Amino acid sequence: MESNSILIVEDEEKLARVITLELEHEGYSTTAVHTGKEGLNLAESRNFDLILLDIMLPEMSGLEILRRFRRKDAVTPVILLTARNEVPDKVSGLDLGANDYVTKPFEIEELLARIRVLLRYRREESAPADEVLHAGDLSVNLLTREIARDGVTIEMTPREFDLLVFLMQNKNQVLTRDQLLENVWGFDYMGDTNVVDVYIRYIRKKVDLPFSSPLIQTVRGVGYRMKGS
Predict the structure, then answer these.
(1) Is the pLDDT of residue 125 over 80?
(2) Which strands, in side-by-side order, build the sheet including 50-54?
(3) Phi and psi (nearest 5°) for 45?
(4) pLDDT above 80 (res 28)
(5) Calpha distance 167→199 (Å, rounded)
(6) What is the mean pLDDT of residues 115-124?
(7) Which of 1, 166, 196, 219 is least surrounded by CB atoms within 10 angstroms?
């Protein structure tokens, strides 16, 4: 079986070397570069299964790389590596389409766990070309990742998309926060548990608030349910 390929964009060469050795020990194929421009060029010119992207880079920031890369590729998982603890950087990265982030210094086992989760979901995401989910007047094409409600196109980040898809795949069922964490973020998720409520709020702003009839229901003390026929 061919190994997963991972691009490492990290200007701290010693850290990049440590990550490279650990990933290769786990059986991954790696490519490491140390500047923003090199990272963007490789990300756009070659196919990788996952990208580890530092935010603070010479020549071009990681957030700028992410912004440009997501114009062409909305699927490849991206994990941000950052020494910053400020919330705005993390929020900006997620808004631009990052799938996850790890704050330095981090334990390599934490990074490996997050990589495993994202690669597993990428393998499970494949769907037939004509598979389209519906909930009322909301539709999601699993192949093209196009979302529309009542003829209006809706844009979402990769994580928002994954959460919406899981809700629609289980429409009219009450899903607990634990179920959503396990199936959208993965068994190995190590972040805040209130992330479910945060992302439900994000997608509600896009699929419910602009329209007259809300589709996502809160079931108090339990979780959430997607209405729809």
Answers:
(1) no
(2) 29-33, 5-9, 50-54, 78-82, 100-103
(3) -100, -15
(4) yes
(5) 12
(6) 80
(7) 1
